[in-house]
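Tokens for chain A. Residues wanted.
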């Protein structure tokens, strides 16, 4: 879900730019969007992880067995949202050089749905 927020933020920030969409501009917009969503992503993941960790510490055996994979999933999800999403967008900008602004917005719109 956090990844879709990141892509949605990129789409919003692209809509605010009047310049022609170049790979450099898209990389700058991706970086700005990541910065805007980074604190929210970290806070959400950290808060959820703390609560699941408390379940792991205080819960009975069956709850511990449930909480451990949840913690692993939260760590993987946070990593993919924070580190991988921007890299994917950055690598995609190389193939967007000849596409129009409208096509780029359609691609980003499809990425969040």
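Reply:
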């Amino acid at each position: 879900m956090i990844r879709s927020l990141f892509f949605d933020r990129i789409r919003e920030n692209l809509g605010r730019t009047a310049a022609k969409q170049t790979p450099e501009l898209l990389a700058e917009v991706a970086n700005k969007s990541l910065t805007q969503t980074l604190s929210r992503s970290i806070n959400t993941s950290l808060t959820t992880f703390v609560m699941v960790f408390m379940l792991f510490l205080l819960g009975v055996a069956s709850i511990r067995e449930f909480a451990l994979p949840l913690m692993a999933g939260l760590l993987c999800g946070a990593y993919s949202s924070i580190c991988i999403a921007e890299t994917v967008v950055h690598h995609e900008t190389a193939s967007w050089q000849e596409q129009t602004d409208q096509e780029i917005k359609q691609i980003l719109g499809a990425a969040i749905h």
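The first helix runs from residue 2 to 16. DSSP finds four helices and no strands in the chain.
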